[in-house]
Design a protein that fits this description.
Structural class: alpha/beta
Strand order of the largest sheet: 4-3-2-5-6-13-12
Largest sheet: 7 strands, mixed
Distance between the termini: 32 Å
């Protein structure tokens, strides 16, 4: 797969053209993750308001041996595939437990960000020199080709990444994944749970403004990569959370009527005052919804692990 940050990447150009031509306007969330966006997201994960990373780290720290026992399952070798691997900090807890248990496995981190994947690969090869590592730069769909039928598989989907899809997309993704897994293969999925709406709202609108920088950097990326002429001060970051649907969403809002020329598209796009561009979704779940989504996709829940506040849940799902 081509690096999505390249101006020659057809996927990038088409995504921007299609997204800004729609009404209402929207841009895919993967545009947030260039080299600068990656650095900003690393900062976000350390913010006091951003609870998901801390909660899941707590779960994996406390229960890493439990996860390892499920993965090893009668001593069989397996292929550990991680979708959206990120910096791998939480995954190292599981890798340490698996190494300590002398598990026989190989590890394939998958990420859409080339820079993050390169840093992770270097770090892990130093920390685990004997572990077979097969990184893949690409999308979740690209990762499906790693799912060989003859090999036992454990798929990690941590960090509430599943919440970056609509519920329709979640159902489609789980069903597609299930059809590519064999009976008794596993998924470990991190779900951000519904909670006090103010806690969720603050996670996407921190006092120090890092989430604002992260969202606005998307426009900076388009300026760099596509020769766009966005003036960042003419747009504002606006996050919302709907406690009825469990959907958190982020927008960029145009502060005035303006026209923005994008050189690579040779097109000018009009933005009305207060017009929004949807940039990201972060779905929150309850246990009934989690059970329904997994069951309808061909999975049974083997176990659930929570942080002390029950803000977050890691679910071990087994292919039926």
């Amino acid at each position: 797969m081509k690096h999505i940050a390249y101006v020659t990447d057809t996927e990038l150009i088409e995504a921007v053209k299609n997204g800004l031509s729609k009404s209402p306007k929207s841009l895919p969330s993967w545009l947030l993750y260039d080299a600068i966006g990656d650095e900003l997201f690393q900062l976000i994960m350390r913010l006091p308001e951003y609870y998901p990373t801390r909660c899941e780290y707590e779960i994996l720290s406390k229960h890493k041996e439990d996860f390892a026992r499920y993965f090893i399952d009668k001593g069989q070798s397996f292929h550990l595939i991680e979708l959206g691997a990120g910096d791998g900090t939480k995954t190292e807890l599981l890798l340490d437990a698996l190494q300590h248990a002398a598990a026989k496995f190989r590890y394939s981190p998958v990420d859409i960000s080339d820079s993050v994947l390169e840093q992770l690969n270097k770090k892990l090869r130093v920390r685990y020199p004997e572990l077979p590592i097969q990184p893949l730069h690409g999308s979740y769909e690209d990762a499906f080709r790693l799912l060989e039928p003859a090999t036992r598989k454990v798929v990690l989907f941590l960090g509430a990444n599943i919440g970056n899809m609509t519920l329709t997309q979640v159902n489609k993704f789980l069903t597609q994944t299930s059809t590519r897994l064999s009976r008794n293969d596993m998924m470990v999925i991190g779900f951000d749970l519904k909670k006090d709406p103010r806690i969720i709202q603050a996670a996407y609108d921190d006092k120090s403004g890092v989430t604002r920088q992260f969202n606005l950097n998307l426009l900076h990326r388009l300026n760099r990569s596509l020769g766009a002429q966005f003036i960042l001060s003419e747009f504002e970051h606006y996050p919302t959370y709907n406690p009825e649907t469990g959907t958190a969403a982020s927008y960029l809002v145009s502060l005035r009527d303006q026209d923005v020329f994008i050189k690579a598209l040779n097109t000018t796009f009009h933005f009305s005052q207060w017009e929004t561009v949807h940039t990201e979704i972060s779905q929150k779940f309850d246990l009934l919804l989690i059970e329904r989504l997994l069951s309808s996709s061909g999975f049974d829940i083997a176990d659930l692990f929570f942080d002390k506040d029950h803000y977050f849940c890691d679910v071990i799902a087994v292919k039926r």
